[in-house]
Amino acid sequence: MKKLRIGLIGYGFMGRAHSNAYRKVGNFFDVEHECVLQAVCARDAAKAKEFAARWGYQSVETDWRKLIARDDIDVVDICVPNNLHAEISIAAAKAGKMILCEKPLAMDGGEGKKMVAAVEKAKVPNMVWYNYRRIPAVTLAKQLIDEGRLGKIFHYRAKFLQDWTISADLPQGGTGLWRLDVKAAGSGVTGDLLAHCIDTALWLNGGIATVNAMTETFIKQRKHTLTGKVEKVGIDDACAFLARFNNGALATFESTRYARGHKALYTFEINGEHASIFWDLHDLHRLQYFDHRDEGLVRGWRSIHVSDGDQPYMKHWWVPGLQIGYEHSFIHQVADFLKGIETGKPAGPTFRDALETQHVCDAVLASAKTDAWQKVKTSAK
Amino acid sequence: MKKLRIGLIGYGFMGRAHSNAYRKVGNFFDVEHECVLQAVCARDAAKAKEFAARWGYQSVETDWRKLIARDDIDVVDICVPNNLHAEISIAAAKAGKMILCEKPLAMDGGEGKKMVAAVEKAKVPNMVWYNYRRIPAVTLAKQLIDEGRLGKIFHYRAKFLQDWTISADLPQGGTGLWRLDVKAAGSGVTGDLLAHCIDTALWLNGGIATVNAMTETFIKQRKHTLTGKVEKVGIDDACAFLARFNNGALATFESTRYARGHKALYTFEINGEHASIFWDLHDLHRLQYFDHRDEGLVRGWRSIHVSDGDQPYMKHWWVPGLQIGYEHSFIHQVADFLKGIETGKPAGPTFRDALETQHVCDAVLASAKTDAWQKVKTSAK
Amino acid sequence: MKKLRIGLIGYGFMGRAHSNAYRKVGNFFDVEHECVLQAVCARDAAKAKEFAARWGYQSVETDWRKLIARDDIDVVDICVPNNLHAEISIAAAKAGKMILCEKPLAMDGGEGKKMVAAVEKAKVPNMVWYNYRRIPAVTLAKQLIDEGRLGKIFHYRAKFLQDWTISADLPQGGTGLWRLDVKAAGSGVTGDLLAHCIDTALWLNGGIATVNAMTETFIKQRKHTLTGKVEKVGIDDACAFLARFNNGALATFESTRYARGHKALYTFEINGEHASIFWDLHDLHRLQYFDHRDEGLVRGWRSIHVSDGDQPYMKHWWVPGLQIGYEHSFIHQVADFLKGIETGKPAGPTFRDALETQHVCDAVLASAKTDAWQKVKTSAK
Amino acid sequence: MKKLRIGLIGYGFMGRAHSNAYRKVGNFFDVEHECVLQAVCARDAAKAKEFAARWGYQSVETDWRKLIARDDIDVVDICVPNNLHAEISIAAAKAGKMILCEKPLAMDGGEGKKMVAAVEKAKVPNMVWYNYRRIPAVTLAKQLIDEGRLGKIFHYRAKFLQDWTISADLPQGGTGLWRLDVKAAGSGVTGDLLAHCIDTALWLNGGIATVNAMTETFIKQRKHTLTGKVEKVGIDDACAFLARFNNGALATFESTRYARGHKALYTFEINGEHASIFWDLHDLHRLQYFDHRDEGLVRGWRSIHVSDGDQPYMKHWWVPGLQIGYEHSFIHQVADFLKGIETGKPAGPTFRDALETQHVCDAVLASAKTDAWQKVKTSAK
């Protein structure tokens, strides 16, 4: 078995999810590569060591440049705040490493373009962790659409609702809270949550032509953990936008961290001429499907428990009726990444794919700023 | 238009539901008869008058014998406690009246047999108010079964769960509480709630051969409203039973007034070789349907919103998506009763049909008493 | 009992719903007025007679001017296409009639202002049939908000999704299809469906300051029933808009007749600082409620089956667990209208209230046309 | 870190679930032991090797006796058909090994008693894989009950419904199908599925006093994979029973493999004086909770998304809103087993606990055979 030596940068929530994926993929999928946890990198040496011990990383680094410079690393996995994605990615590409980068790709499209140029010039396999594509129910949705079952698409609507930042006492910045600090995150819910919705939407329904957005920052000032001072909040707490897809479909997108009762409610619904689809992250193992071609008398939304062997990815897991969870989407992504390098057909989303999401985010933020419709740039070659 | 002159005995919850049905049926259904609210009968003259004024009854009686004796009454509608059903029904039959009797038919099968004999001898149209047959979703279930869509039936399960008698302070007997008084009700949940479940089951799945039951009275003594004394509670607070249908299906039935969180949760589920059906009174306008012949990839329980014009009874109401409620089942029953007398094909459940339910109830109570399986008598001619 | 003599203009879907309400209100509510079905008016005399016979109207008219001129009519109820609302209303006001007008109030705000002026000058009781306010679950939502349970409101989102006009073969214009004819309807889903969403929203969450909309007409041409020719479709098939409320809440609204699987899915969700509310017309008897002040361990969305006597309107109906349906909202509205004239405290929505909804609709359509945010005019005195 | 060397016997569905648990527990839980995958044992050497390679077992055996005899094995994990549990367990106990045995404990109570005697005599840590206790929502249910929130319990109902054996073409016996062969399995759904329901019930609601059951074998003969002949089917395809708990609660239990539409629908509901609980394996991350002490106006079933850090086990996983799946119950069980040996307070269910479930199963099967109520033996010391 070929070895693929992973160098992980960052050890937070995503560091754990990725490490788990590398460790499990070979138990459940027939892949030609063994993922070797070669090194984890974090500025805090003690924490890096603790993480390495828990997950079985064979070494630690405290400087990502050193990690990239090592000969015994094949893949660089970037799990640090958004403001570091570009610099590390470009350096890693120059060093000829394969790159798996957390989402969103970059702070903005400008950065993203440079990153795409770097990986394409270096011809290194690259992928961005938009993991929700590989929830089996979402992958099934893609399959149904690609088979033409929905017919012409009229509507797309997506939401990502959370409620964890309603308290004004929550500070911004620092470990676990960098998502509230515009310098580290680039934006608020737009890059953090809507980016997921947009990635799925582009994958399922093609390109977005134009957008019209509004954003709001409900809490204007928060104490900054790093400076200790009360500072202006630079991120968007909520963002909603209208959109038109290239295929003529109308869309609404919305995200917020101020929706009481919703922890991580990512939902999407697609209405086609013949059929409709609905999915919901809080019950991620189900797909709701309505087919108007069903006989009228017994027509209704079907609640599909996506746990059968003929449904995407599920033959690798347990038996019908037994659900998998959130973390499995990462395992599927690693399996597909490996298959991509084994077959020479890269799995998506690549950096270039993710740049398209970045362009939509940029247009959304520009629209909110200008109170006007904005065209979306394309990242297609 | 022919007139059908109604004489209503009793003015409680059911008196209201029936009166509403008589008043509305002609607005929504094309029937040849006009239901005329001729007289209402109640022992308390003041209450009878108040009820008559509210609902438009043209006269009142305080003695049901006088009502039955009147020439200007075509239909006697019996909405009084169970212990009076037999006497009134038999007298009404002798007087040549059509009879609509509240459920359960009788205090027991012995009484029921006499009632059946009386109406059949008198050849008067007769029906029992097992209204749930005519909830559109339930009628649709019947239609699907009759079309053979389910194939061989393996399982039937029904429950009727309530929680309104948990307090030990609730008295027994008197207005609104006669259901807790065994002398007026005959039994507790068995005759009150399970009788509904059994009627539907016999209609949907044919006869029940044998039963095995347990009952419980959680609160042993309650103050009696009529005597003012604390008296032994004679009814069953809860009853569960196993059953085997003539068609080989296995069944579980359960009812209680001690299930916190359930106001009137009547549910049934039927599992056939090819398809399954589930229904729930708390969302009565929906039928859940699973068809295994659907393509595996997109197979799931269908939540059918029964509000389309091609679904039972619904063309008479509003437009797709707009639900009707509980009271409409009574209107449907009156519509079908009228159609029955207009066409000469009596609508069910007749007294004879309801006797079969009574026999099951008797067997259930006998089984609980003897701790043994009991065969069910048949009421078929 | 005082008599209130109703003159109904129009005999379609709404004519039936209103007639049913007048006939039933006295059976279930303690009101001082008896609604007398005095006359129904329709251009087609045969149809008017048939309708009168079915519902018990005592006379018919074929010219609405004659109806209004009659001395024996107290209330004029307008159930005709939108383009006739203004003319009839203004004439009826001048004749001193009370007026109940179907929604939307008018073809646009200009018309609406004149109508408001007319009824206010004439000092006649007036109301618009935005019936959804009086679905018990929606009224309960209002009560919870007014009690301050939600705290500061961050988000409002509403949708009204249907799927009945997807076929290109469906013609526009004529009986039952005037909603597709811009000359009769004024607009498409905006006035027909979003108007309902907006009325509820203004009632629950106060005024809307600004909107930003997009509309689409998916099928550009349809045969016109009246002319027999294929003509341009002038209505909006779909409309989505962003909005900001005066209280700072962000909102998304959407409506379409191209959402497969949805017959009449009106939903709204409100997210407040402390609690959230969700409601859905397809299961109209339930309110979903999330209260963050519940203990964390057992916190979750509560599915409230609104059928208890202490919940709005429900003491007038059956017993807990037994649901009512769509038509009951009209009965409640008549009950409240009667109570309004009995107490001198008019029930809403009055014409003036409905004008505010009209102003939002106007701003929405203007925004879609101009691709720009639009301020909403206020109708407050 | 101390090492705990695992010897796994069997490599099927459960072999995978357990191996996954051993590999992951240390990544997510702070335990003092490292689980070392020392050896896997299977009669087929090639398959054993393949399994060892995939999961990282360091050696293979083809004779379980040799595995047990090895000095470098601390824990014997038994994942073979039921008819081998007793012999292997007793031998392992004699060899002083800790034992983790798949459920049900034994072919019957007689065997089970000997197994309990063996492990208790040898004083070896022992546990049975009734994994559903450690689905977080189920553990939360236990916690709520132990805190007394439900009050006196009136009702318990549990079902385990599947639909995978409806085809008459399915053979009995052999790999994957030994569950249909009475010689290997001992019983059908009673030992396979109801045993799970009973284990949870005893844990949540205490001992069962008496039972009354019916069983059915719908397909009487099936081809036997091992003999190649059509043979009588000895297992129960379906089993339903009534029960009375020691605490006075009434219960219904049912299981079948003939319920179309249900893959693995294990559900239980408990109704107490104050509150009720419902859980469902098909949406295992949710607990439905109804508390009658909630204010009446907003009382309803709460759908608790069990994914918060203060809910059982969840602080070890991801962030609120992100669900875990079936396999995690095994990881939790290993974590608790390790904690049990580290603290000296053994985690349940021990062999003795599981014997109590066995006694209920025995009484159920005896009742079905005799058509009579049966008392349940107790396994308490």
What would your notes on this structure say?
Four copies of one chain form a homotetramer. The first copy, chain A, has 381 residues and is α/β, with parallel strands linked by helices. In chain A, 33% of the residues lie in helices and 25% in strands. Chain A has helices at 13-28, 45-55, 64-69, 85-94, 109-122, 136-146, 182-185, 189-205, 328-343, 351-370; strands at 2-9, 33-41, 60-61, 75-78, 98-101, 126-128, 153-161, 208-216, 221-223, 230-232, 238-245, 250-256, 265-272, 275-280, 286-291, 301-305, 374-375. In chain A, strands 16-15-14-13-7-12-11-8-17 form a nine-stranded mixed beta sheet. In chain A, strands 3-2-1-4-5-6 form a six-stranded parallel beta sheet, sandwiched between helices. In chain A, a hairpin with a 5-residue loop joins strand 14 and strand 15 (286-291). In chain A, helix 1 (13-28) packs across helix 9 (328-343) and helix 5 runs antiparallel to helix 10. The longest helix of chain A is centred in the last third of the chain and has 20 residues, at 351-370. Chain A is globular. Chain A binds chain D through residues 13, 16-17, 19-20, 23-24, 26-27, 54-55, 162, 164, 262-265, 281-286, 305, 307-308, 317-328, and chain D through 13, 16-17, 19-20, 23-24, 26-27, 54-55, 162, 164, 262-265, 281-286, 305, 307-308, 317-328. Strand 16 (301-305) of chain C pairs antiparallel with strand 16 (301-305) of chain D, so a sheet runs across the interface.
